[in-house]
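Before the break, one more example. Copy the sequence into your notebook; we will annotate it together after we see the structure.
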Amino acid sequence: MSDTQPALSTFEWIPPSAGLAESDPHGTLAERLQPACEDRGASAAEVVRRVCRDVHAWLCAEERPDEGIATSLRGELTELFEAQGWRGPVACLRDAREAVEALRAAALDSVVVEVYRVRLPDRAVCARPLLDGPHGVEAGETILVHGWSETVARGVELAMARGLAPEVIVSEGGPDLGGRRLARRLVASGATVRFVYDAALVEAVRRADRVWLGTEAIGARGLLGRVGTRALLERARDLDVPSAVLATSDKLVPGGELVLPEWPADEAWHLWEGAPRDVHVESQSFEVVPLDLVDLFATDLGALGPAEFAVQALRTG
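Here is what the structure looks like once it is written out:
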């Protein structure tokens, strides 16, 4: 299965007030990046690629002056980093930008351009520790996953390409129903998929041989997962079902401190649109999960235990 297989979206997860998903190529950089600020369905890697493409084009445009580029970027990117900077890969991009700004007095502003020629770690390689050696998946096993994850999708596709033919239990993946997107993609690769409610996932652990999860960000003490991830991992531990988080090294947040996204609380419509005024809608869809609930982190750096990955998170600071 090719690593370039396009993702199949269930729908564009954009707030109704955001208008069209496509940016105006003739607008300011901040205006061009507005859809990326408000996109709730795109993966962090997709957001980083889109931002870097737009920023790189803006920096390289003939009308851009050489002087003051870094200063101009700070203002143009403020909203983007406020909206998406809770995600590991976006936080890494922000950190790289800030490092370049710190060196601005001793370097040409043109160096800033290099920050946006991004090369993201290959999501597909994370699954290799889970397919080879002592942690390897055996043919016909059942893998349980929680909603959409590009890295998990790549891992299952790699397992299929090796003829292991796993069955995959996929949850709906609220609030964006990203599990549907994952299920469609995995069926296209030939995998057998069973689709369940999020609420049924904990009980479904009994039918699984292993649990594979993705994450948006990893810090020194925890990771960001969809609501329900902690209960799922606790259940897996109780039943001795091995769990793994598939994550590239850019999911490590510089400094190791995690921040929950603000948009779920600000956009309660995704849980209940038009809720009565007296109903308090608790719409935060992410939670911080302790690292020690995970048996193994399968990364582009190899297979790591929770303590090893915590050290890696602190070293990014």
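Residues 123-315 form a domain with the Rossmann fold fold (CATH 3.40.50.10470). The chain is about 35% helix and 15% strand. Try to locate both features in your own notes.
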